[in-house]
């Protein structure tokens, strides 16, 4: 396994620059116990009120730390909706076997006629929020046709806030929700602007969905990049044909507890893969809307992601 050299992160952490919202608290000023509670909250094991209450009780200033961790999406946009390098619109497409038989997604393509290599972008456990849409735009400016499905479309779509989005996603049939992601991948690969090569990336729940699609799509998927997502079941790993690039946060015990068995299974099945652990990082370090964001790790992991897709989708 490859490790990000500690010094590459230490320089960034020493600078203690605030995350893009301009909030006063920085990553190193937030108690690890509050990060741990936020992880419980993000994954639906406690609600917002409980998260704030427990954070306030665990340390002096805990409530302010907890409030600082809540996302500020508007300030985290990196690629404008109107950037002339891309063309973006919402599309509807059939999804047989999914939660409603229909799906909606955010399709972003580079300016020009293509065809382009394609990448499916899978959201976290709260639907298609602005951060994920921005990731799709980041891929498009790099030359990829990107589709970010909204798994909440059958429930009315992303509701505009993560709390309601998390509740809605938890109520969906999870098997059908994964089918909706699978159908999005197939629709994208068949799109007239796609060159036939397909990659998938996803974050948290979407990272797990990326591993799931690697199993289900087999040779139809050329490259997968899961960010801190649950591993595919060991028995299903031999079905993977895509080249995988797996990103892990250092402080992420739930996901990291699956890592060793997943990597052993990939090695035994001769699955092509690379994996990286980013020292000092929290689960969600790529998401630049909260202080969990780590600029050095997010930048390096994204450079590796783009290189991986260029290598396998060209």
List keywords for this structure.
314 residues; alpha/beta; Rossmann fold; 2 domains; nine-stranded mixed beta sheet; 11 helices; 9 strands; 39% helix; 22% strand
Explained architecture:
This protein is α/β, with parallel strands linked by helices and 314 residues long. It has 2 domains: 2-69, no CATH class; 77-313, Alpha/Beta hydrolase fold, catalytic domain (Rossmann fold), CATH 3.40.50.1820. Helix content is 39%, strand content 22%. Strands 1-9-8-7-6-4-5-3-2 form a 9-stranded mixed beta sheet, with helices on both faces. α8 (205-217) links the parallel β6 and β7 (223-227). α2 packs antiparallel against α3 and α3 (48-58) packs antiparallel against α4 (62-69). The two termini are 26 Å apart.
CATH topology of the largest domain: Rossmann fold
Order of helices and strands: EHHHHEEEHEHHEHEEHHEH
- Class based on secondary structure composition and strand pairing: alpha/beta
CATH class of the largest domain: Alpha Beta
| Low-confidence residue ranges | 1-23
- Number of E-type strands: 9
Outline type:
globular
Percent helix range = 25-40%
CATH superfamily of the largest domain: Alpha/Beta hydrolase fold, catalytic domain
């Amino acid at each position: 396994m490859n490790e990000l050299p500690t010094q590459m992160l230490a320089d960034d952490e020493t600078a203690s620059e605030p995350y893009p919202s301009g909030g006063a608290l920085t990553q190193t000023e937030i108690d690890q116990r509050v990060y741990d509670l936020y992880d419980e909250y993000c994954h639906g094991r406690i609600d917002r009120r409980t998260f704030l209450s427990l954070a306030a009780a665990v340390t002096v200033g805990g409530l302010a730390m907890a409030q600082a961790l809540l996302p500020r999406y508007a300030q985290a946009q990196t690629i404008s909706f109107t950037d002339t390098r891309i063309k973006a619109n919402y599309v509807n497409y059939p999804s047989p076997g999914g939660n409603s038989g229909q799906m909606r997604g955010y399709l972003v393509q580079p300016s020009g006629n293509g065809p382009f290599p394609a990448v499916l972008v899978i959201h976290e456990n709260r639907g298609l929020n602005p951060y994920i849409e921005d990731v799709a735009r980041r891929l498009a400016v790099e030359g990829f046709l990107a589709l970010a499905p909204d798994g909440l479309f059958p429930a009315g779509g992303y509701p505009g806030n993560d709390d309601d989005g998390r509740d809605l996603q938890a109520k969906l049939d999870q098997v059908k929700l994964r089918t909706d992601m699978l159908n999005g991948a197939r629709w994208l690969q068949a799109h007239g602007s796609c060159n036939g090569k397909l990659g998938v990336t996803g974050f948290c729940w979407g990272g797990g969905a990326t591993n799931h699609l690697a199993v289900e799509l087999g040779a139809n998927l050329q490259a997968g990049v899961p960010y801190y997502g649950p591993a595919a079941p060991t028995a299903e790993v031999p079905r993977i044909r895509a080249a995988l690039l797996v990103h892990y946060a250092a402080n992420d015990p739930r996901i990291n507890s699956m890592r060793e068995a997943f990597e052993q299974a990939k090695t035994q099945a001769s699955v092509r893969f690379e994996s990286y652990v980013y020292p000092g990082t929290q689960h969600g370090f790529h998401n630049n809307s909260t202080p969990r964001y780590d600029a050095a790790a997010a930048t390096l992991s994204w450079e590796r992601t783009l290189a991986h897709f260029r290598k396998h989708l060209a």
